[in-house]
Design brief:
The protein contains three helices and eleven strands. The chain is of the alpha+beta class. The chain has two domains: 33 residues, no CATH class; 145 residues, Immunoglobulin-like (Sandwich). α1 crosses α3 and α2 crosses α3. It starts with a strand and ends with a strand.
Length: 189
Amino acid sequence: MAKHKSLLLGNKATGSIGGNICFTTWKGIGIVKEKPEPANPKTVAQMAIRNAFSGIVDEWHDLDRTIDDSDAYDVLAGRQSKPMSGFNVFMSIYMDVHVSTNTLAYLVDGSATRVTTTVTVAATASEDIQYKAIVYNKNHVPVAEDTDTAAAGVLSIAVTVPASVTEGYAVIIADAVGNGGKSGLYSFD
């Protein structure tokens, strides 16, 4: 490691040249050093996380996932405390599920439709387990919920809502021990 002070580079030069030399600062002093080689230990735990990440990315790109599914995650992303895309929300949900439960319950081809005071929330589920549908009014206040079990991948939950709820959103959440997953927010009117 060497100090540098050059009119050409200045005292605050950063970056690398030729892939081998790295310019940085340390306590305000310009330093030139060999570019560090990032560690990649490829531990079993690290490889499990990388494989899960790759699998979840593949699931996002599943051909059965519709534009409505992607849009529903974008709506959910808009409700987050920090700026995120629908893809980021999807990855965050399912990486958390992978780390905590190891059984991922994916939902695709989802929808929410309202007829009088019933909102039917439907999707194709990867696991035949119990799911909960939560219905929100247009101000994102929860107004009703109900549960049902997917059969042969088909999930349809009828939720009775107050007559005043004419438009809003619905979400599906895996509601079985040892399983996890969550849809985006499907809108209805």
